[in-house]
Design brief:
Number of strands: 4
Number of helices: 4
Largest sheet: 2 strands, antiparallel
Structural class: alpha+beta
Oligomer: single chain
Shape: globular
Order of helices and strands: HEEHHEEH
Radius of gyration: 16 Å
Distance between the termini: 52 Å
Strand content: 25-35%
Strand order of the largest sheet: 1-2
Length: about 150
C-alpha cells in the first residue's frame, strides 16, 4: 500500500514535472518568450513566475500536466519536433541515471521514479491522438509529414 501511495503522490507528480521541464527547457533554449507549466488538476494551490517560466500547481498533483510555449514568431517544424522530444528525453535521462548508478534500488521512491519516468518516455513517444489530446510522438511525426 505504501508503494502505491509513493507512486501516486510523489513519483508521478515529480516525473510529470520533469517531463514538462524537458519541453520547456528546449523551448526556452530555442527562444520562447514565455513558457507555462501546469501540474495536476482541480483547484490551483500555487502559482508563480521564475524568469520566463510561469508555473501553476493544482490540488490533484498526480492527475496530468502540460506545458505551453509562446513565441512572437511560430516555431518551425523542426523546432516543434525538438520541443516535443524534450519531455521524453528528460524522462529517459533520469531513468538511465537512476538505473546505471544503481540508485533506483536504494528505496521504493527511487525505484518508482525510475519505472514511471521510463513509462512516461515510452508512452509519450507512441504517435496517438485521443479526443484531441496528442502525444509527443504524434506531434513529432506530424512535424515531418507534409500537409496535402
Amino acid at each position: 500500500m505504501i508503494s502505491l501511495i509513493t507512486l501516486i503522490f510523489i513519483a508521478a507528480p515529480v516525473s510529470l514535472l520533469i517531463h514538462e521541464l524537458g519541453h520547456v527547457t528546449v523551448a526556452l533554449f530555442l527562444g520562447a518568450e514565455n513558457s507555462l507549466i501546469s501540474l495536476g488538476s482541480g483547484q490551483e494551490i500555487l502559482k508563480g513566475r521564475i524568469g520566463k517560466l510561469d508555473f501553476r500547481i493544482h490540488l490533484f498533483l498526480f492527475h496530468g500536466a502540460y506545458s505551453l510555449n509562446e513565441n512572437k514568431q511560430s516555431f518551425t517544424n523542426s523546432q516543434q519536433a525538438l520541443i516535443s522530444m524534450g519531455g521524453p528525453v528528460m524522462n529517459v535521462c533520469l531513468s538511465a541515471a537512476l538505473y546505471f548508478t544503481g540508485i533506483s534500488q536504494l528505496s521504493v521512491l527511487l525505484h518508482w521514479l525510475f519505472l514511471f519516468n521510463l513509462y512516461l518516455a515510452v508512452v509519450n513517444l507512441v504517435p496517438i491522438s485521443i479526443k484531441g489530446r496528442k502525444s509527443d510522438g504524434y506531434r513529432i511525426v506530424k512535424c515531418f509529414i507534409k500537409p496535402k
